[in-house]
Amino acid sequence: MGKNNSFLLLGLDGGATKVSGYQVLVNDSNLTFDLSNNHAEKSYSEIPGYLPDFKAVDIPTQLKQRDEHTIRLTEAEKQQGAVYVEATAIVIEELVRKAGNNSVLVGIGMPGLKTPDKRGIEVVANGPRILNYASLLEKRLELEKIHLIAPIHQIGSDADYCGIGENYAKEGLFRDVDNAYYLGGGTGVADALKLKGKLVFFDQIKPWMAKSWEMKAEDGRSLERFASAGGIQNLYAEIAGKDVAELNRQKIYPLQIAAMAAEGDESARKTFDLVVKNLSLLLFERISTVYAGWQGLFSFVNPNRPALSTKHDYLGTLLDRIIIGQRLGELMDSEAGRAILRKPLLEQLSRLIASAEALDTAAKRHYENPEKIIVTSKLRAAPALGAGIDAYLDYQSKK
């Protein structure tokens, strides 16, 4: 595994609470990638100026401002945005210091919808909008005499980067199949698709398929609430009448909530009943939309989102694999999670498939044992890995 002696390849994943970064190793002989042990992370809360009570502008307002080209950052967003950039710079500095090489190529993934030049964030659910993220970071690194061998070509989608990671990593679960869907649940939710042997990014298929966070359940909550670790914790907090900050202090996360559900805790059981119901519907929606086009199973967080098309280039495609990744995958693999989440999820999905009008006999036969199709990913830090891979592939394409 080569180490790119001329420069460091770095992949960074910026979430809602911290930035995590790795040095990425390249094997040019078969174009596979792996994470090195050179890792650094920084919580935003450790940075001076961090606003613990920061509240994001509501999504409908953000979308309206984006669509009308009237984005106005609040003072809180500007301050919190500066904290996010500073945390990212500190992570890069630490990786550079550990490796002893200040010549770097950087890939970064962040949640949210990006600016037209893809170097900033203009809509995001759980954080500040940062319209000139890449430029601010580049200037900050320049002050530290860190040499970027190429500008940051984009603030990528953490979801896309999960797909890229699964497709190019040695142990990636997209590698050996032609048709697969990936659902990663961390702080937020990540969707990725591979169809007819190629990665298909969600921004390219938005006329006929929506991202998970864009769709809402019948109770009005975004599906992100049921498919992400952060969302599940928030859901439990709502049902139990508890404060998320208090749950964090007590270290009560989805793994612990699943264990509480297994022991009969009523609020925890209600939480997972809702998770199973909506997660099974989400996976069923993916199966049916790829095979037969949009069936109208969900409404949208943005009421002005154009209706989805029932036609696309992949109609009739059967998924070889559904991959559950990140902390949602860990939850499904845990002892309590297998009983409280995986088993009832598979049973509910089987019922939905068996009664589906949009699936013909051949499709129903293909999906009749969903436990053979649904797998969990063990890929370590998929978004950070994918970010580094994306930066490398873009750099090579321009040489």
Detailed description of the structure:
- The chain contains 13 helices and 15 strands.
- The protein is an alpha/beta fold and 399 residues long.
- It has two domains: 8-159 and 383-398, ATPase, nucleotide binding domain (Nucleotidyltransferase, domain 5); 176-378, Nucleotidyltransferase, domain 5, CATH 3.30.420.40.
- The strands form four sheets. Strands 1, 2, 3, 4, 7 and 8 form a six-stranded mixed sheet that branches. The chain has a five-stranded mixed sheet with strand order 11-10-9-14-15. It has a two-stranded antiparallel ribbon with strand order 5-6.
- Strand 5 and strand 6 form a beta hairpin.
- The model has no long low-confidence stretch (mean pLDDT 94).
Give a summary of the structure in a few sentences.
This protein is α/β, with parallel strands linked by helices and 399 residues long. The protein contains 13 helices and 15 strands. The protein has two domains: 8-159 and 383-398, ATPase, nucleotide binding domain (Nucleotidyltransferase, domain 5), CATH 3.30.420; 176-378, ATPase, nucleotide binding domain (Nucleotidyltransferase, domain 5, 2-Layer Sandwich), CATH 3.30.420.40.
Please render the helix and strand layout as text.
Elements: E1 8-14, E2 18-27, E3 32-43, H1 59-67, H2 75-99, E4 103-110, E5 113-114, E6 121-123, H3 133-143, E7 147-148, E8 155-157, H4 158-168, E9 180-185, E10 189-195, E11 198-200, E12 215-216, H5 224-227, H6 229-240, H7 244-249, H8 254-262, H9 266-292, E13 299-300, E14 321-325, H10 326-333, H11 335-354, H12 361-366, E15 374-376, H13 382-398
Parallel strand pairs: 1-4, 4-7, 4-8, 9-14, 14-15
Antiparallel strand pairs: 1-2, 2-3, 5-6, 9-10, 10-11, 12-13
Helix pairs in contact: 2-3, 4-13, 6-9, 8-9, 8-11, 9-11, 10-11
